[in-house]
Specification:
homodimer, 340 residues, alpha+beta, Hypothetical Oxidoreductase Yiak, Chain: A, domain 1, Ribosomal Protein S8, Chain: A, domain 1, 2 domains, seven-stranded mixed beta sheet, three-stranded antiparallel beta sheet, 12 strands
Chain lengths: 340, 340
């Protein structure tokens, strides 16, 4: 395991992204996002993505210098064309915009289209919560990654749902989940380490239940979490982050299209924000007052695991597996950066 | 099985509710809702509720003549005090209000507080979809019904999520689901018929997995659907339908408080509504094009099962189990209505 401080990782990420062609200010946004994701423990959506993003800049999927543009604008809504730049640049632009509009008018909806991989979806609600705004962030669409309930062919992506809210003294609420039973990151990891997955995660190319990650890569697909309920949510996400935003109207030349649905609500819309935050703390305390079930030490609320990991990693550094570090080094060298 | 047409049920429901003290216009709203729920196949939230509601009018939980009042109002938001009248009256008032505001300003959020049982949550997005509005409806809070993930004591209610969207030629999108593995209606039914539940639905008073509905009534609790993910959604719903709306600030004298979060989005916000609806149809077609898995005849999208049941029941009538019909008759007699 290679362990480096958040600051060291920040320098590494910035130099790789800039060497790959990103302007300094955009490299900084992507870097902050990747470091944040890794600090929260979402390693599959953190610094490891430097490898993929550098490759995508080279093959033209990511336009490293593209800047988001507002193409429709009302006091409570905006449509943003990301012009196929970094997903994080688009996501942060959209989040700042929706936060500003929500603070001014009570609530707002921003739809970002033409965007690349958004990174760790939980980063956006976490940023909004810092500003006192409740945020619902949805992204996803159709692909071959996940089967519909009752189907055996992949038709949906992992269509994640992220929700955040400020609290008072407590860690903010933070929900960040794929609507598939497992995220693709876990699948890749299982494949890489040769481990089997728990039952209920995937089907093989014939649509039969499997625990072998190889079956996914051989034409299989992931399963929605929670059966027909997770499937229903995945379809709702596909509608809200797709047709509603007109994501397909801003497809890349190769046909790719992708949207990000960002709904912001001023936490002080119906009562003073400070009072609201205290009520959230109180609600969390009541949930956490349940005695733990067998095998658990305590009840956690959504957001606590990530907040604790962040605290530890800020203190002890962010770890990375040796072989991934080697790949990052190779990526850096390919871009002309030498990392010791 | 007793089978009656929607029109017959409507007459029965109206006469019972009016005899129990509801003004004619409010009885009609509740009646339409109950008939709609039963038409869609949500029997546990349909006409059977006449029994409970009549009882609750008698014991003062439902104030049969109360009318919702707008207590905060902006172009894109409103807070509505339902004054502990019928939940359906509050829900329909809120839905009409949010639809009107969304059509005028692109999107809107209405928070209803001080409301009773809302009936079938799917009815609200279905109504909004008819008007061309995408609706997200959330309700719920804390109770002893459901354990938090990792806990063994009930701390959450079943905190349902409902989402709807218009389509063009296709049945509208309609998601309507409890965040518990099963709704309490299914639990009551299993208890009544002496049947065991599938694994994963509940825990006994010690927090141990159980399939026996009696264990629930003996101090046990339901489990969230999909493990920690369903739990995370249940907590988010509790925050959005509770503290955000200041639901606890409008508690009944006995301490009960309850809120309904209604977010409406004009389906024509980012593109012409007709174009949007066609894109939804297209998305549904692509999902449905998956070959069915073993044991399934076809892939359905959320909303199709309810739409099909409605079609059948409009043609063939709405069935009710004999013993429930007997209880409805007794309820009617208690209120001074004689049903043959």
């Amino acid at each position: 395991m290679v362990v480096k401080s958040a600051e060291e990782w920040r320098r590494i990420s910035n130099s790789i992204l800039q060497a790959a062609g990103a302007p300094g200010d955009l490299a900084a946004i992507v870097t902050d996002h990747l470091v944040d994701a890794s600090l929260m423990g979402h390693d599959s959506h953190g610094l490891v993505r430097l490898i993929l993003y550098t490759e995508r800049i080279r093959n033209g999927m990511i336009v490293a210098g593209a800047r988001p543009e507002i193409i429709r604008d009302t006091p409570v809504s905006a449509q943003v064309d990301a012009h196929w730049g970094f997903g994080q640049v688009a996501g942060h632009f959209g989040t700042e915009l929706v936060v500003e509009k929500a603070m001014r008018n009570g609530l707002a909806l921003v739809g970002v289209v033409g965007c690349n991989h958004l990174g760790c979806m939980g980063v956006y609600p976490a940023l909004a919560a810092e500003k006192g705004v409740v945020l619902l962030a949805l992204t996803g669409g159709l692909s071959k990654v996940m089967v519909p309930y009752g189907g055996k062919e992949g038709r949906l992506d992992t269509n994640p749902i992220a929700v955040g809210s400020p609290a008072a003294g407590h860690d903010p609420l933070l929900v960040d989940m794929a609507t598939s039973e497992i995220a693709t990151g876990k699948l890749h990891l299982a494949k890489k380490t040769g481990r089997m997955l728990p039952p209920g995660c995937l089907v093989d190319r014939e649509g039969k239940p499997s625990v072998d990650p190889d079956d996914y890569y051989d034409g299989g697909a992931l399963l929605p979490f929670g059966g027909h309920k997770g499937y229903a949510l995945a379809v709702a996400v596909a509608v809200l982050a797709g047709p509603l935003l007109n994501a397909e109207g801003f497809a890349a030349p190769d046909g790719r299209h992708w949207g990000l649905f960002l709904l912001g609500i001023d936490s002080g819309l119906f009562r003073p924000s400070g009072e609201y935050r205290k009520a959230v703390d109180e609600l969390f305390s009541r949930i956490k007052s349940s005695a733990p079930a067998e095998g658990f030490k305590e009840v956690l609320v959504p957001g606590e695991p990530a907040a604790r990991t962040r605290e530890t990693r800020l203190r002890e550094g962010i770890p990375m597996a040796e072989e991934i570090w080697e790949a990052v080094r190779k990526t850096a060298e390919g871009a002309g950066v030498s990392l010791k």
